[in-house]
Amino acid sequence: MSSPIRLGTRRSALAQAQSGHVAAALEKVSGRRVELVPITSEGDTNRASLSEIGGQGIFATRLREALFAGECDVLVHSLKDLPTAIPDGLTIAATPPRVDARDVAITRAGTPLHELRTGSTVGTGSPRRIAQVRRRAPHAQVVDIRGNVDSRLQRVASGELDAVILAAAGLSRLGSDSPLRREELGLAEWPTAPGQGALGVETLADAPAELLETLAALDDHDTRLAVTVERAVLEGLDAGCQAPMAAHAVLSGDEIRVRTVVYAPEGGRRIGLDVTEVLNGEYIRRNGSGNDADAADGADPMHAARELGLTLARRLLEQGAADLVSREHSS
């Protein structure tokens, strides 16, 4: 009997739920058993604000150490929490189909976020969400919070907070049946973090060919293309996963539409772009560096997607985004 595939995951309920979805798919395509290997990261034990302890990348560091050490064969990450720089020796071997990329506002009575009364408390630890709340509900008080999904929901249920902002994908993967009310926040007015709703399956670049081929069967081309654009915007801004910025890309036929916004921390100012492009070799020739290597790579849609994201980042910076985004926590 073939040895099991060891899948490294954080210990949180959400991380294990999303890893469980990947494990089931991996067992189906490989015919091998997949066992979860729980790993504790600093981000799971240190309750300080993420901006104080290194941003979302702290969740990935310990997992990657375990992968390099041979404690597991593959990792599953939430792409919105994963730094854009992939360490030498590792590769994102699959991006399964993305689920709902929206944020949701959770309240007790279903009051829309923009109708919350003056002094209402809204919990979130994300600089992007903080800026968006301050735009949507300027009279509310934002409370910086950490903790798992259940603990955040409980703080609303108990009356400690009037609302929390959560990712729809997390609630879906956990199968939450909370009696609290939810308001879906549309992506056109409330774009979310690069990669939100998508997972990345990471392994060693020199992993056995059989494993790489098996993981490739989980890859969704449209999801990978969209998140490549989104994460390239973040990479080009050089601002890290905790930057107050959003990027969301949607494919329609041969075209890709990208909405990206950089927010001032207090939410008063923002710089945004909304563009639609056809990703092909012609895009690279018009917007890339123009050398022969890039022209050859232009046939690769993922290369074109990254070029588009980097181009949008440059345009944002030219319009003043550098004044809004701190680069202290670059990842």
Topology (SSEs and partners):
Elements: E1 5-10, H1 13-30, E2 34-39, H2 42-45, H3 50-53, H4 58-68, E3 74-78, E4 90-94, E5 103-107, E6 121-123, H5 127-136, E7 141-143, H6 149-157, E8 163-167, H7 168-174, E9 181-185, E10 199-204, H8 209-216, H9 221-237, E11 245-252, E12 255-263, E13 270-278, H10 281-287, H11 292-297, H12 301-318
Parallel strand pairs: 1-2, 1-3, 6-7, 6-8
Antiparallel strand pairs: 3-10, 4-10, 5-8, 5-9, 11-12, 12-13
Overall description:
By secondary structure, the chain is of the alpha/beta class. The chain has three domains: 1-97 and 198-219, D-Maltodextrin-Binding Protein, domain 2, CATH 3.40.190; 103-185, Periplasmic binding protein-like II (D-Maltodextrin-Binding Protein, domain 2, 3-Layer(aba) Sandwich); 220-331, Porphobilinogen deaminase, C-terminal domain (Double Stranded RNA Binding Domain), CATH 3.30.160. Helices cover 36% and strands 23% of the residues. It has helices at 13-30, 42-45, 50-53, 58-68, 127-136, 149-157, 168-174, 209-216, 221-237, 281-287, 292-297, 301-318; strands at 5-10, 34-39, 74-78, 90-94, 103-107, 121-123, 141-143, 163-167, 181-185, 199-204, 245-252, 255-263, 270-278. It has a five-stranded mixed β-sheet with strand order 2-1-3-10-4, with helices on both faces. Strand 11 (245-252) and strand 12 form a beta hairpin.
